[in-house]
Structure prediction request, 385 residues.
Amino acid sequence: MLSRQIASGLRAYETPFYLYDTALLRQTLESVVYESNKYGYKVHYAIKANYDDHLLAIIREYGLGIDCASGNELRKAVEAGFDPRGIVYAGVGKRDKELRYAIEQGILAINCESIEELMLVDALAAEAGRVTDVALRINPDIDPKTNHCIDTGQADSKFGISYEEVLEHAEAIKALRHVDIVGIHLHIGSQIRELHVFENMCNKVNAIVENLERLGFSFRFVDVGGGLGVNYDVPENEPIPNFASLFSIVHNHLAVGDKEVHFEFGRSIVAECGELITTVLFNKTTATGRKLAIVDASMTELIRPALYGSYHNIENITSEEEGREKYTIVGTACESTDVFDENVSLKKTRRGDLLTIKSAGAYGMSMASRYNLHDLPGAVYSDEL
Ligand code: LLP
Prediction:
């Protein structure tokens, strides 16, 4: 854990801030590139996980494509120098101006999530005098065995087109003249730790591709999304996620001939390289006897615990006390759910101590807000120290 090694040096920066271990990010990227190359798989980085410019510049060096979820994310990726031909764009509710921009950029694929969207893309592409590449995002109806708040591919989810609806409209889809249906896309959820669910996903994809090709569709690629989980419990045990296992499962179970296979990883690329560093402002004990450590970060810097009940491992990196105590770690925001964790065993904690909230590189800064007019947190990078 980088923060522990350089704890005293961190006093120079105003908290709260994100600390990024760019060496770990590079090792993670080396791993994903090395493992994916074994099978010729193509990897996109899901920019929603963290769109920090410094991190994006590093990610670009490793040749990844981008997966984006809004017109502004697409613009960010283009401005950061990613080749539009390596960018996919999903999202249930794309605005006309966002679709126009995607069409103009000639991206790898607009991943369409409803029949109406497909019709609109066809019309907008016609208006632009173009034929646009599109992938059908299909809802595969799979339980990814993760936190319900972050599953995306179950039958009733808002994401993707139901397979039944694709069948029902197959002829109309094939008749579209300004979209070229080049791929199938799906994403079953995030923070998936039970990798066997990816086997179910592959079996579903095999059947969907086979059936749709029998109906006359012809796909160049399948994009199976992201979702590989990280070890929030003890990040030190697994700083680099197990890309090799996931790729080997997909290799053994996906049977789509020589089609390209794409992945869209967000969390697994950046979660572990980021920590949120915060200062203890005050300690107090509630009337019920609960010891609170009030820190200068809050849900406005890292909303995951308040929003999903997510767990992040927390450590006091500057206390030199021998004893440990149990604390409830709360933030500064005017919200009762602004609690990072309860019953956290920490070295005895005093005003001014620095805490690290680990594995915060993904969906941390990118979900930060200015509630209570908090300032957005800064960032410190290990390669600039
Ligand atoms: N592709 C699509 C279409 C997605 O919707 C997502 C994430 C990804 C790829 C990247 O998934 P990952 O590899 O990061 O699991 N804010 C939540 C996570 C939301 C994920 C949304 N979609 C969190 O903090 O856990």
Summary: The chain has two domains: 22-271, 272-384. The CA atoms of residues 122 and 204 lie 27 Å apart.
